[in-house]
Amino acid sequence: MEIRVPPEAAGQRLDRFLAVHAGSRSQAERWITLGSVTIDGRKAQKSTLLTGGEHLQVSAPPLPSHDADSDGKGPAALYEDADILVVDKPAGMVVHPGAGHRSGTMSQALASRGAAGGDPWRAGIVHRLDKDTSGLLVVAKSEAAHRTLKTALGERRIVREYIALVAGCPPSRGGTIEAPIGRDRRAPQRMSLDSSSPRDAKTHFTLVEALPASSLLRVTLETGRTHQIRVHFQAIGHPVIGDPHYGPAPSYGLRRQFLHAAHLELDQPTTGERLSFDSPLPADLAVALTRARAGD
Asked: Has 130 been annotated as catalytic?
């Protein structure tokens, strides 16, 4: 976690300032005592007085994960404070209850952690990921935090960055796909550009690495439509590798789409501090990337 100290925090002790991010002052003190906090690259002391403008880095141990159901699999909580949870969702987990998924969802797993705000049946959920997309999500712990985060999401102040492996190579090293998306006219279980109820959708991408038969991309969402990345890249002829609905036949040993929410930035709902989180590629995607580089 990275935090830029705002000017109005000048004069505060570090442990008091971090308490809102840690969930308690004792947890903040534990982070500092363990040597998990640095200020401008130097190890911090809990009595340090802030001047404003410092760059804090926190490499605190992850909080214990909580089970989604009896199989013992749950989302890893990377960060928690009085207002929010930031979790690293595993592939295969549904974010909230819906048709065909009445139990074992992420929102239900986080209910005991205080997830709250928004619709009761998906309390705390601010944005979602598809079942087989892994990576970072922010979850609210109060109605006020939920409202603030939903507003920030609508105003595009929450950065959501994905890593995707797509078939072939796009014609440029970066660009924007802007095409409305809605339920497909003929197959309503799918999303499509051919829809009677399309909604504006915009996706930005940058080429990270050109591979023998595919391309590794960094993708940023400006809007958040269902299946947006998957539909947009199919539309330009470069579908996401491993996608069972919009992509080519599975390859590189994948059993799901190569799509991972790798980076998340947002303002803490109460203090306004900018928070930044990163998630490495899960093992299955890392193995697939190695095979793609080798042209297997």
From this structure: yes
Tokens of 155: 């105003």
* Tokens 């570090």 sit on residue: 14
Place domain 2-58 in its CATH homologous superfamily.
RNA-binding S4 domain (3.10.290.10)
**Selected catalytic residue, list 81, 88, 130, 132:** 130
Q: How many CA atoms lie within 13 A of 143 on its CB side?
A: 2
Q: Which residue has the tokens 């990275």?
A: 2
Report pLDDT for 71: 40
What are the backbone dihedrals phi and psi of residue 3, each rounded to the nearest 5 degrees, phi first?
A: -135, 130
215 DSSP β-pair partners? 166, 210
Q: What's at 165, amino acid-wise?
A: L
pLDDT of residue 21: 66
pLDDT tens digits for range 194-207 = 888 889 999 999 99
pTM: 0.74
The CATH code that applies to domain 64-155 is 3.30.2350.10
